[in-house]
């Protein structure tokens, strides 16, 4: 099975497409058990969503498949990594993608996703540094103000 590149996950399904997958999944659950393929299809549709709640449910379903169906682990690793990446859980995304790259070092989809994850980690680091720098500047201004005020007494 060929895995899509990470950019494919940025194109969410339409509401009606996701409803079809949800309906199939719920019908099978109501009959006692959803097949792994149906669960997987629904999880992938959820991971493609722009809604964080959908992505989180998709990751939960993929985690269930990963644990219960060893032959599906390879594709689950990729989609788990992708889901965590989209939610901004970069450490989890790195962990799952590293497991996939360990098994398949030449997997171009995993390499592509790894580059996106690294950019996300760097971006998060820059934002953190900017916030820390801003907090330090505000703290410095407050201390300077207190020192000036204390010297006037």
UniProtKB/TrEMBL annotation:
Q: Tell me which Gene Ontology terms the entry assigns under biological process.
A: autophagy of mitochondrion; mitochondrial fission; peroxisome fission
Q: Where in the cell is it found?
A: Mitochondrion outer membrane
One cellular-component annotation, GO: mitochondrial outer membrane
What is the membrane topology listed in the Swiss-Prot or TrEMBL record?
Single-pass membrane protein
* Annotated keywords: Membrane, Mitochondrion, Mitochondrion outer membrane, Repeat, TPR repeat, Transmembrane, Transmembrane helix
**Superkingdom classification of source:** Eukaryota
| Similarity section | Belongs to the FIS1 family.
Please give the PANTHER family that the UniProt record associates with this protein: MITOCHONDRIAL FISSION 1 PROTEIN, TETRATRICOPEPTIDE REPEAT PROTEIN 11 TPR REPEAT PROTEIN 11
Q: Spell out the protein name for this chain.
A: Mitochondrial fission 1 protein
């Amino acid at each position: 099975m060929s895995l899509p590149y990470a950019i494919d996950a940025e194109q969410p399904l339409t509401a009606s497409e996701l409803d079809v997958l949800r309906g199939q999944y719920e019908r099978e659950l109501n009959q006692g058990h959803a097949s792994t393929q149906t669960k997987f299809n629904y999880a992938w549709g959820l991971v493609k969503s722009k809604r964080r709640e959908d992505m989180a449910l998709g990751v939960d379903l993929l985690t269930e498949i990963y644990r219960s169906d060893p032959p599906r682990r390879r594709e689950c690793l990729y989609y788990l990594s992708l889901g965590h990446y989209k939610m901004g859980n970069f450490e989890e995304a790195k962990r799952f993608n590293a497991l996939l790259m360990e098994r398949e070092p030449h997997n171009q989809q995993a390499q592509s996703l790894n580059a996106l994850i690294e950019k996300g980690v760097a971006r998060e680091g820059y934002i953190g540094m900017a916030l820390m720098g801003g907090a330090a500047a505000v703290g410095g201004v407050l201390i300077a103000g207190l020192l000036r005020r204390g010297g006037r007494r």
